[in-house]
Specification:
Number of strands: 7
Radius of gyration: 20 Å
Helix content: 40-55%
Oligomer: single chain
Distance between the termini: 51 Å
Shape: globular
Structural class: alpha/beta
Order of helices and strands: HEEEHEHEHEEH
Low-confidence stretches: 5-24
């Protein structure tokens, strides 16, 4: 009987540890696990000229100035080779993934180009290219979250 109780207690401990480790892990958005507090997802069309898009260049510079952001480019292309070309052409040193119709899956506006996701919130904050103050809004959200951490 004592052996049975010990086995049961061991099973309970293992289950508890597994539950804690899965809860602590972080949430997943666009098939990417959020490691930090703020994740920035940028939707990029492979055929779009990023050099012509001031908005996207501003987003890139914002990410380069923030060391504690998790950045991911969601590139609208079909093959890994095109993804590698994107990384090389734009010197993208962050994670990049193929777009799997994420805008439709997450019910996002088709014009969305940037999405902010937070570790402790299920909400996604989306920004469209035609939003004139989007970069300032993104900076504000990031500042608020970073100040709450400190």
């Amino acid at each position: 009987m004592k052996r049975l109780v010990n086995c049961f207690a061991l099973c309970l401990c293992i289950t508890f540890i597994l539950l804690l480790s899965s809860c602590r892990g972080g949430r997943e958005v666009f098939d990417v696990k959020i490691e930090g507090t703020v994740a920035v997802f940028m939707f990029v069309d492979e055929n779009e000229c990023l050099g012509c898009s001031t908005f996207m260049l501003d987003c890139f510079s914002l990410l380069n100035n923030q060391k504690d952001l998790q950045a991911t480019a969601i590139v609208n292309c079909k093959r890994e080779k095109q993804l590698k070309t994107f990384n090389k052409n734009y010197n993208w040193n962050y994670l990049s993934i193929l777009d799997k119709n994420y805008k439709e899956k997450y019910n996002l506006n088709p014009n969305t180009v940037v999405v902010l996701a937070f570790q402790d919130s299920e909400n996604l904050i989306e920004f469209c290219k035609d939003d004139i103050q989007a970069i300032e809004k993104i900076k504000s959200y990031i500042r608020i979250v970073q100040n709450e951490i400190r």
